[in-house]
Amino acid sequence: MNILLTGGMGYIGSHTATLLLNMGHQLHIYDNLCNSNIDTLDRIKKITSKEVGFTQGDIRDTKKLTEVLINEKIDAVIHLAGLKAVGESTQKPIEYYANNVQGSISLIQAMQAANIRTLVFSSSATVYGDPIYLPYDEEHPTSPTNPYGRNKLQIEEMLLDLANSDNTWSIARLRYFNPVGAHESGLIGEDPNGIPNNLMPVIGQVVDGRLPMLNIFGDDYDTPDGTGKRDYIHVMDLAEGHLAALTWLKGNLGCHTFNLGSGNSVSVLELLHCFENISGNKIPYQVVARRPGDLPEYYAKADKAAKILGWQTKRNLTDICNSSWLWFQNSKNKKST
Ligand code: NAD
Ligand code: UFG
Predict the structure, then answer these.
(1) Are strands 118-124 and 76-79 parallel, antiparallel or unpaired?
(2) Tens digits of per-residue pLDDT, 24-62?
(3) Please, are residues 159 and 119 in contact by the beta-carbon 8 Å criterion?
(4) Does residue 333 carry a pLDDT above 80?
(5) Is this structure's pTM higher than 0.85?
(6) CB atoms within 10 A of CB 70
(7) Which among 35, 54, 125, 130 has most CB atoms closer than 10 A?
(8) How many CA atoms lie within 13 A of 60 on its CB side?
(9) Active site residues
(10) pLDDT-based confidence at 293, cuts 50/70/90?
């Protein structure tokens, strides 16, 4: 298949790219590099020994996007391009709506112009909001609590309206839980610009001395050790979820929603201790106030993806910490050269 990957130079996109290339697909990445680096392209080529096309462009540039879709004879799109920091979305909501919602409208218009009707969309467990019950299944009511989550829900709803209005579309809306870990080569992983928001990149910056310690946001939740619990999913399992969804969509029309999670939740302290054991590093930490908007615990009911897509996670917390540790060591070497 000829696949266009929007946001393919980012964390999830670059890992997904290696898998798709290794499975024999042709790939073209479309990314404006606002949160990624051109070096990643060479790393993807190094891991796969395959050629990969790249256009630097914004998804809101409908004309440019349409030209790429037509010229590259694209069959299907995996849409990962977007801004993703929950906190930042509350500070800059209009930037988030413009980039994420307007950008997705532009992509749909370009796909319509190029007559492409197969789409996998990166959504998020954030669309569920406060749990009414756990685990979240795909039928759980949606009530996001921040602009980023509302962007994702608006795009999801737009895609459903689109599929209802035109029965030639095949769309998968993938609700990711907490992606972590890195490629087994140690060549690509997550390394956000500035001070990270997410737990594993913060641990990475403590390991390499960029941050003095980890702040644990609360140890007084109603969980066994008092720290927040999440459903962490290895980024290569997530990449396999995209491949499974894309393969399944080829024989199925309509708009479909799938949770991509492991079905288990792990606390901050459990993840931290696993990482310390694997890396042999003691991670200094202090417990600080709860982070506004954080939930005590959530995790996926992942049965639907298993039953319909034949997909489930294969990697565990040890694999997550091993791959992250390898990536942190490699990226530290990279920074000091
Ligand atoms: P990332 O920031 O590493 O990657 C996103 C990529 O999109 C970057 O390379 C960025 O340069 C590009 N991009 C952003 N806006 C663009 C635009 N207007 N035009 C072209 N390119 C643009 O993020 P990620 O973690 O790889 O996330 C990928 C997708 O998955 C995002 O849509 C995100 O919302 C979603 N998601 C991420 C998580 C997570 O915790 N990482 C969880 C749920 C959903
Ligand atoms: N945490 C800390 N200290 C930190 C960072 C995080 O204690 O410095 C804790 C949080 O309080 C939470 C857990 O670690 O209990 C995970 O927090 P993350 O920030 O890593 O992830 P979130 O669960 O808040 O959200 C992430 C992404 C969202 C995405 C969601 C999907 O940031 O974009 O997962 O489930 F939508």
Answers:
(1) parallel
(2) 999 999 999 999 999 999 999 999 999 999 999 999 999
(3) yes
(4) no
(5) yes
(6) 14
(7) 125
(8) 10
(9) 148
(10) confident
Superfamily of domain 2-183+232-261: NAD(P)-binding Rossmann-like Domain (3.40.50.720)
For ligand 2, is residue 215 a contact (CB within 6 Å)? yes
Nearest CA to ligand 2 atom 11: 217
Residue 254's beta-bridge partner residues?
Answer: 170
Element (H, E) at 278: helix 268-279
Q: Which amino acid is at 298?
A: Y
Q: Is the CB of 197 under 6 A from ligand 2?
A: yes
Q: Residues near ligand 1 with C-beta < 6 Å?
A: 7, 9-13, 31-36, 58-60, 80-84, 99, 103, 122, 124, 176, 179
Return the ligand 2 atom nearest residue 214 CA. Answer: 8
Q: Is the CB of 217 under 6 A from ligand 2?
A: yes
Cβ of 86 closer than 6 Å to ligand 2, yes or no, is yes
The CA radius of gyration of the chain, in Å to the nearest whole number, is 19
Query: Tens digits of per-residue pLDDT, 183-207?
Result: 999 999 997 877 888 999 999 999 9
